[in-house]
Request: fold
Amino acid sequence: MTVNDDSFTNWMHREEIAESMIPIIGKLHREQDVNVLLHSRSLVNKSVVSILKTHRFARQIAGEELSVTETMPFLRALTTLDLGPSQIDIGMLAATYRADGGGLSVEEFTAEAVAGATGDNKIERRASRDVVLYGFGRIGRLLARLLIEKAGSGNGLRLRAIVVRKGSGQDIVKRASLLRRDSIHGQFQGTITVDEANSKIIANGNEIQVIYSDDPTTVDYTAYGIKDAILIDNTGRWRDREGLSKHLQAGISKVVLTAPGKGDVPNIVHGVNHDTIKPDERILSCASCTTNAIVPPLKAMADEYGVLRGHVETVHSYTNDQNLLDNYHSSDRRGRSAALNMVITETGAASAVAKALPDLHAPITGSSIRVPVPDVSIAILSLRLERETTREEVLDYLRNVSLASPLKRQIDFISAPDAVSSDFIGSRHASIVDAGATKVDGDNAILYLWYDNEFGYSCQVIRVVQHVSGVEYPTYPAPAV
Reply:
């Protein structure tokens, strides 16, 4: 047998194992509300090839490839346990066991590592929480995809309605079509039908009421059986407490804004300050995509090295706020063609850092350039540190942060030398450290941070909504503090 034959036989063997993983992962998710992860990446509803690629990717951040032959025994071990709602990272289980299994069998090690999610320790499955999307643009439709995806277990968040202004002719059909197909993020994973008579979009069995209104105070959500709902305002029309309170007047329980909040509206970056949300807080903001991209790595660097000052330069994809061709715009430069120009513009991300990291007293400045790509941006974060370090030390530290810290869902790490912006479309992390571009000289460090300013940000919004709704389940093994 040739080497090529050996490689192909090995591939087919791993395919077979990955194929057998799918029904186990699906059953754990549906019946026990357990989300199986691999180094923070969900394996629920993933294909055979996707599962294998996710294992392969571990090599880039952990330094060595992780095989399905290593993780499968841990997955099987989970099926023998009385698990409650949780997120369990079989990649972390395998890596930790490989480093030091303590002389235990895989079954014993697994039972000990996830003990907080079993038996008397497990939390009860909670009733689903109604969610309303106010607005259905770029972010709104991605939020809809994520909410529908996460409704698979029948618990957690349940998208009940979208509120939009009435358009002309076949409005609901056109909105369903935009949800079904996206030029950047591809086709919707599932089926979508339209019930025009009852103004509903049915996506993967989820009946989503389409409500037409231009005034939040006039919507009667109880007429649709919607109660105690969390509303996600992705219009950006109101950004202060007074304006967003209009939703509360209609009976909404909590309002989450997908733009930087003004005044005393808390700006939340999940993973960094979501635990500061007061139980009685009814209005909050998820800040901006750029704030979510820079704050987690900024916190990580400040915690380890200290930060004296910093500057962030954002090279940002164009957005709907710009003109396709030169035309009138209230902003000085955004009226020029987004598809033909690099456009210097302002960013509020630097000032928003103070709200998310109030204990960081270092001055952070910022500026932004919009460029002719439709999605994925990069933030260049230049820092003056409190102590000198080396490039190797910083990269080792950030690699470990992405693998095993409380920020591992926010910070990703890539060492591929040929990575470009389109490679990060669909990334669920708030920020991806580009190892090859990182520069360190004594007490100066420059980090290049990729981020999908649409999808990655939407994932951060959903995490905040899960947290305030009480359906953010604990992760095992617990990340290192």
